[in-house]
Amino acid sequence: MTLFRKNLIDGEWVGEAGSRNINPSDTGDIVGDYASAGVEQAKQAIAAAKAAFPAWSRSGPLARHAVLKKASDEILARKDEIGRNLAREEGKTLAEGIGETIRAAQIFDFFAGETLRLTGEVVPSVRPGVGVEMTREAVGVVGIITPWNFPIAIPAWKIAPALTHGNTVVFKPAELVPESAWTIVDILHRAGLPKGVLNLVMGKGSVVGQAMLDSPDVNAISFTGSVGTRKR
After folding, report:
1. What residues contact 54, with CB distance under 8 A and at least 6 apart?
2. In 32-140, which ranges are continuous DSSP H helix?
3. Triad 207, 180, 106: Cα angle to 5°
4. What is the mean pLDDT of the chain?
5. What residue segments make up the domains of the chain, in order of their start?
6. End-to-end Cα spacing for the chain
7. Residue 8 per-residue DSSP state
8. pLDDT tens digits for 50-96?
9. CA distance 224 to 1
10. Which of 106, 155, 204, 220 gets the most CB atoms within 10 Å of its CB?
11. What is the DSSP letter of 69?
12. 212 and 143 in contact (C-beta within 8 Å)?
């Protein structure tokens, strides 16, 4: 039986099958079927992230640390399984797939540590009697769009810092590599992220990515991809 993976919106797995993931090095190997979000689901994901932002941005460092460390530990413990699926869907060698998976675990481990080092600065002012204090605040809803070539490492180094600093996320991975994206979101979801903090919207860039760009409720976009798409 072919597995079916859904999108994660506001803490719920939703969506109907829209695309099939096939091993490029063995076209008889079907990795799975995956939901494909439309504009309305993208809008729902953005709304969920916006609603979750106030509470998550005020969450303490220990709460964020617990989630990111737990995710790191599970990714590392499952490196062979996750790395094999990465190799299947992308065409990398098994060694490269496992190595990239280990790198993703290390990224989450690093940013778990960063949650405990969130600091500001107090610096002298040129004006007598005036203090200067710098603090770092969450931006808001961050739209994350990632490519196919590093399907677990690039999402990790975008999602981890966004969550570390109190932002909420709407994540659209490349259509060619949905399994790696789904896996990392599933792990973070089960690690204890509150609903709406991380939303997965697999689908076409021209649909989901455009919905992010058009939304006034998305405060930042982190994108890795082609120059043409970047210009748009």
Report:
1. none
2. 39-57, 61-77, 79-90, 94-114
3. 120
4. 94
5. 34-118+140-231
6. 40
7. E
8. 999 999 999 999 999 999 999 999 999 999 999 999 999 999 999 99
9. 34
10. 155
11. H
12. yes
Domain 34-118+140-231 has CATH 3.90.550.10: no
- Locate tokens 């180094």: which residue? 157
Q: What is the side-by-side strand order in the sheet with 30-35?
A: 4-5, 30-35, 17-22
pLDDT at site 145: 96
Cβ contacts of 79 within 8 Å, gap of 6 or more = 98, 101, 102, 105
- CB neighbour list of residue 190: distance below 8 Å, 6 or more residues apart: 74
Give me 31's structure tokens: 């990795």
Helix 79-90 vs helix 94-114: angle between axes, to the nearest 10 degrees? 120
- pLDDT, tens digit only, all 232 positions of the chain: 678 999 999 999 998 878 889 888 888 888 889 999 999 999 999 999 999 999 999 999 999 999 999 999 999 999 999 999 999 999 999 999 999 999 999 999 999 999 998 888 888 888 988 989 988 889 999 999 999 999 999 999 999 999 999 999 999 999 999 999 999 999 999 999 999 999 999 999 889 999 999 999 999 999 998 787 777 7
Residues 6+ apart with CB under 8 A from 95: none
178-190 and 61-77 are packed helices; what angle lies between their axes, rounded to 10 degrees? 130
